[in-house]
Amino acid sequence: MAPLLVSVLVLFTAQQLLIPLLVPLSRELDLTETQLGAVLAVGALVFTVVGPVWGRLIDAWGVRATLLVGLSLSTAGLAGFAVVSAVGLDGSNTPTTTWLLLLVTRSLLFGAGVGAVPVAAIAAAGATTGDEGARTRAVGLVGAAQGASMVLGPAAGGLLAAVSLVLPLVIAPVVCAALIVWVLVAIPSLPRVADTEPGPREPGPRPWEPRFARLLVIGFFLYVSLAMVQIVIGFLVADRLGLEQEEAASSIGAVLVAIGVVLVVVQAGVVPRLRWPAMRLIRVGAPIGAAGLLLLSVADSFVTIIGALVVVAAGLGLAMPGFTAAPTLLVGPRQQGAVAGMITATAGTTFIIGPLLGTALYQAAPAVPVLVGAAACGMASVLAQAPYRRQAARR
User: Which of 205, 242, 215 is nearest to 321 (CA)?
Assistant: First the structure.
């Protein structure tokens, strides 16, 4: 698991480097809020479509080969994103041309490649752990690695953006390229997760099966609340605090660092010590997330915005490992790749809907997407109250 956790941390740190500058960069490029939302939404669509494909490829090719393909696509996408942005900033392309090229680089190439790493990590966590507590702790560490990237990436991105909006764009693909070299040198071979269980392969799980359907709907509500907040928080900070573009980038970076610290502490520290069943994590975490979003809807200062988001991160930091672990407990090692793809596809679906819905609702009224996110967390909490019966994994 350790090499996969490092890969998750490094790749998502490279991605998060760019988060603080997306809003100011889009405004410098004369893109509308909806165009920015579309770039992220199309990337999420690609991520969603290829998630199950990565799961099958992990079983067929092994983890190392799949990682290298995914990282190569990610590096190409981020490098293209940097070039397109730099050309757009000097006025060589029209805003429409820039937007279309961003769809190709940031959305298609990077969106396809980035999904390989979390699918591999979740599949490995499912295949190498047995009891529910160990499974929840393992997927919690995957989430903690992503949370740590939300500390490192925005912190570095905010500092770099204060120097130049272009600098993080250059650093991100360099980090990805370095990760490819590390995987080639330091990870000579990783087994297929399906090799942990001999015997003939059974038909893969389907999301509409009753044993998965409710869990995936719960996960959808949790992640769509996060997706909407992530896309509007930059606008919220800039507009409520009346900040200029580069000031906004630094402030957004600080906000995302605070969220990331809480996610790391909760998922790497609190969840393993609690040793709660997966559904209990959801039942406790979702209402906390909803409460934080309600606070965010009325927050009007930097301190209150960060405070509200800390509550949101604490709640989702509990609930999301519960969602990620629960479906993996229903299958044996041979089906972990397919289930991991299904989980990441569910999350990816929300990042199609979330950015478009969030930006559209924000244009109507800034508090609306935050309130809708609170309602989504509330729905997840309600659905999680029904009895949960673990079915024996077929072996």
Answer: 215
* DSSP code string of 139-206: HHHHHHHHHHHHHHHHHHHHHHHHH-TTHHHHHHHHHHHHHHHHHHHH-S----GGGGS-SPPPPPP-
pLDDT in tens, 103-133: 999 999 999 999 888 888 887 776 666 666 7
Residue ranges per domain, the chain? 2-186+207-384
**CATH number belonging to the domain at 2-186+207-384, selected among 2.60.40.10, 1.20.1250.20, 3.40.50.720, 1.25.40.10:** 1.20.1250.20
| Residue 294, C-beta contacts closer than 8 angstroms, at least 6 positions apart | 371, 374
Distance CA 371, CA 39 (A): 24
Residue 209's region, left for phi above 0, alpha for psi from -120 to 50, else beta, is beta
CA 311 to CA 10: how far, in whole Å? 26
Quote the strand ranges of the chain, DSSP E: none
Question: What is the C-alpha to C-alpha distance for residues 83 and 105, in angstroms, rounded to an integer?
Answer: 10
Contact criterion met (CB below 8 Å) for 330 and 390: yes
| pLDDT, tens digit, 9 for 90 and up, residues 68-82 | 999 999 999 999 999
